[in-house]
Structure formats: C-alpha cells, structure tokens
Amino acid sequence: MTDNNLLKIKDVQLKYGLSDTQIENITEQFNRYDLDHDGRIVPAEVKELMMKIQLDASDSAVSAFIHEMDRDENGSIELWEFIDQVGQKVSRQHSVGSTSSQPFKRARPAEEESTSTQYTEPVEDTGPDLD
C-alpha cells in the first residue's frame, strides 16, 4: 500500500471518527471482497459477490455499485474508498441511534409458501457495530 493510500485512510478515519479497531474490521471485510488480493475491488469481483448474495448482477447494476464507491473514478474500489463508504454509513448510524444489523432489507415473497430469498435496496445500516 502506498503512503498516499495510507494518508487517505487516515483522513477518512479522522473524518468519521473511526477507531483503529473499526478500521481493522472494515479492512477485513474489504479483503473478503478483494478476491485476488490486489488491493482493489474490480467489477468482476463485485459481480461475483452480487451473484452470491442473489442481487442483480447485470453490468449496469455492477457499474452503478462501483460508481457509488469509486471516489477517484478509476473503475475500481480501493481500500480507502471502501473505508470512506462504510465510515459514512457507520457515522450516520451512530448519529441517528440505529441498532439494526441487517445491511439489506428482505423483500416479502409474493406467496407465503415461497422459500426463495430476495433482497431489495441497501438500508442505512452497514451491519454489526464495528467498535
């Protein structure tokens, strides 16, 4: 990781008041999604993740996901961008006092007998408290 990226991570940490433990936990999550461990999450990795959790993995959905997080507009998500996105949501969660731990809302099945799980848009929460 370059010194520039370390500075960006530190800036994001200070911006949202994230603890070192939170940064470590967010980094662990990033590393789970960075399948080839090259320090960035590329569209193919996003697509694979979206398919695994049964979200729309169309090219346009993947592109929209990347675009939302890609602050430097280089077509991939680096660790500092990932921390920035998660930090923003953690900060918002603490400011409104939310305690929910589900990052996606489950859609109600069309029929009560349905066993398939579908998910809709992400909710404000990013998951478990990272403190």
Please give a handful of descriptors for the protein shown.
131 residues, mainly alpha, two-stranded antiparallel sheet, 5 helices
Task: Give the helix/strand layout.
Layout: H1 3-16, H2 20-33, E1 40-41, H3 43-52, H4 59-69, E2 77-78, H5 79-96, E3 104-106, E4 119-122
Antiparallel strand pairs: 1-2, 3-4
Helix pairs in contact: 1-5, 2-5, 3-4
Architecture overview:
By secondary structure, the chain is mainly alpha-helical. 51% of the residues lie in helices and 8% in strands. The strands form two sheets. Strands 1-2 form a two-stranded antiparallel ribbon. A two-stranded antiparallel sheet has the order 3-4. Helix 1 packs parallel to helix 5. The longest helix has 18 residues. About 21% of the residues have low confidence.
Low-confidence stretches: 98-124
> What is the global morphology?
globular
Sheet/helix structural class: mainly alpha
- The overall pLDDT, averaged over residues, is 81
Question: How do the strands of the widest beta sheet line up side by side?
Answer: 1-2
Radius of gyration from CA coordinates: 16 Å
Strand content: 5-15%
Biggest sheet architecture:
2 strands, antiparallel
Helix residue percentage: 40-55%
Give, in order, the helices and strands: HHEHHEHEE
How many β-strands, per DSSP? Answer: 4
- For the record, give the distance between the C-alpha atoms at the N and C termini, rounded to a whole number: 24 Å
Number of helices: 5
